[in-house]
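Morning. Coffee machine broken again, so started the prediction first thing and wrote up yesterday's gels while waiting. Chain of 309 residues, entered below exactly as on the submission form.
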Amino acid sequence: MRFAIYGAGGLGAYYGARLADAGEEVGFIARGNHLAAIQSNGLKVLSPIGDIHLSNPLATSDPAEIGTVDVVIVAVKTWQIPDVAAAIGPLIQDNTIVIPFLNGVEAADQLATVVGEDKVFGGLSRVFSEISAPGVIRHMNPSAYVEFGELSGTTSPRANALRDVFEHAGVEAIVSEDIRSALWAKLLLVGSWSGLSALSRSPMGELLSQPELCTLVDRSIDEGIAVGKAMNYNLSNDLKASMWAFYKGLPAETTASMTRDILAGKPSELDAWNGAIVRFGRQVNIATPVHEFTYHTLLPMEHRARTNS
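Came back before lunch.
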């Protein structure tokens, strides 16, 4: 298959490098010093499951230099989706699949309004990776996981074929028959604690040591589950328990990407995480007081970050 990685950061470049190393044709869309380093020195991935060095990958800031592909993996921040939608045209042909691998539940529909719902999968990923230096990706845990599926909730041969390609590249892949419910569950996993973590300036270990703060996280989970059920998402009865088990299994110093961005004064995914839960809660008449407080308290910092960026 021919792939374009739209956003060659920690996540996108990692998966793109695995696919290229497995023999797929991959073009990377990046920018700035990271792009310059890839063009000059290639793309390196340092990983506990095996390092990769692509010595001369196709890397550009212009999608037209890549041309049409079979699959576009979108791995940007949520607020950049409108820019991607406006520029993605040169990558699209009749059979192209577009998959956003980012947190939140709105990106797939935003892209579908431009390229058509028949060309878009819902998708999510779980991988700990980052740009450790321009042109260098550090993969921090011995696993990587992607889940994707048709927005309609049907199964399809093209989804199964794509799963096989990922698995051949050493990436655990699952085809979901209900990707919208999976995306909502993932949103709750990241959104229920990241904003409170930013407000308290606390990594996971400090949050877990504060019972009152844990209570607020627990209430935020309940709010998100109530909204999701009102939207007819299929959420498992043990979802909250599994989320707490995940939180308690994280290293004490763990912070969410949104938390790190907010505390660093950078634009964050606040609107797509807490903001989305608030918006959808209003649509289905479910109160979300913890998410509302978190969202509106952090919003002035978000506005300043976007003004200064």
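The chain has a mean pLDDT of 95. Going to sketch it on the whiteboard this afternoon.
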